[in-house]
């Protein structure tokens, strides 16, 4: 027998059978996690089956696990709302643009707060942290944006969200846990701060950047208050604000929809559920791409090693 065969046999012989208590623990643990998974997944599943079921049965709470009277009329009617495509485009551009700009600005600011020789480092860092707890208030912020010429423009979505102090703290802590050795060797080779940041520090921050990118993207995608406060041009409405208006007028909207055609009748409840699904489905598609970085980035950024 070859040496590889002997090693395989040795490993098999050394493997101890599971005890009865271990088997019971594994079974209980699997059942508990299955229940928790069902609790987390079921609300989304229930939402989706209600949007494609007979709306009269939904109003009577007769839809539990299986959809009945399957139809997609809710989605057809919602997708036919005026200005929906333009609002969706504005939301996508806002989310992508703000996330990209925020990652660069936030990580760049965090990087310089890690430098001991930065002038007034402690003062400026504490001054920045204070803004997490105290703000100027709604009216001063509105007037400030107005003086800067941001109100009723697309840039009101981008520029005020360029820096997130909370995300900056996470990135700063993660950079500090990296250690100074790599940067010191780069300085000896003649690299400057910008070179070290873009070619050494930033590539090593993938987990934490993916995590804070997710935070930023979700916040920007779900936000409708900015549009409500600063935008009057309907061409700059985001998808969330457009659907927010429809949601506030859901009863009137349901009455205006033609229910004489084939399919189940449209009800206010059906419109509410469908609007919710339309808003959450796109952002849910982002999670699988950042899931493997999420826990690692959050833990590394929250605890200094």
Description:
With 305 residues, the protein is mainly α. It is built from 17 helices and no strands. The protein has helices at 3-14, 20-51, 55-59, 73-79, 84-113, 121-130, 138-147, 155-158, 165-176, 181-188, 193-201, 206-222, 225-230, 239-248, 250-256, 268-284, 287-302. It is flat. The two termini are 48 Å apart. Residues 258-264 have low confidence and may be disordered.
The general outline is flat
Oligomer: single chain
What kind of sheet is the major sheet? none
Distance between the termini: 48 Å
**Strand and helix order:** HHHHHHHHHHHHHHHHH
Strand content: under 5%
Structural class: mainly alpha
Q: Over the alpha carbons, how many angstroms does the gyration radius reach?
A: 26 Å
Instruction: Please bin the fraction of helical residues.
Output: 55-70%
**Would you report the number of β strands?**
0
């Amino acid at each position: 027998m070859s040496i590889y065969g002997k090693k395989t046999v040795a490993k098999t012989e050394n493997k101890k059978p599971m005890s009865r208590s271990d088997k019971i623990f594994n079974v209980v643990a699997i059942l508990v996690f299955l229940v928790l998974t069902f609790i987390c997944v079921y609300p989304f599943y229930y939402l989706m089956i209600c949007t494609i079921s007979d709306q009269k049965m939904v109003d009577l709470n007769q839809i539990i696990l299986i959809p009945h009277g399957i139809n997609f009329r809710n989605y057809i009617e919602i997708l036919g709302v005026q200005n929906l495509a333009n609002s969706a485009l504005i939301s996508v551009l806002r989310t992508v643009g703000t996330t990209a700009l925020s990652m660069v600005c936030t990580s760049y600011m965090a990087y310089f707060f890690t430098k001991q020789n930065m002038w007034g480092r402690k003062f400026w860092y504490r001054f920045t942290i204070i803004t997490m707890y105290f703000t100027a208030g709604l009216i001063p912020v509105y007037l400030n944006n107005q003086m800067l010429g941001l109100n009723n423009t697309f840039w009101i979505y981008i520029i005020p969200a360029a820096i997130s102090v909370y995300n900056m703290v996470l990135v700063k802590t993660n950079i500090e846990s990296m250690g100074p050795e790599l940067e010191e060797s780069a300085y000896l080779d003649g690299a400057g701060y910008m070179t070290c940041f873009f070619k050494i520090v930033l590539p090593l921050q993938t987990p934490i950047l993916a995590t804070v990118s997710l935070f930023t993207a979700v916040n920007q995608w779900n936000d409708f208050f900015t549009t409500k406060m600063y935008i009057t041009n309907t061409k700059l409405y985001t998808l969330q604000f457009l659907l927010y208006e429809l949601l506030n007028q859901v009863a009137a909207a349901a009455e205006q929809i033609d229910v004489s055609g084939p399919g189940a009748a449209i009800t206010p409840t059906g419109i509410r559920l469908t609007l919710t699904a339309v808003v959450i489905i796109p952002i849910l598609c982002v999670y699988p791409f950042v899931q493997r970085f999420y826990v690692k980035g959050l833990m590394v950024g929250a605890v200094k090693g």
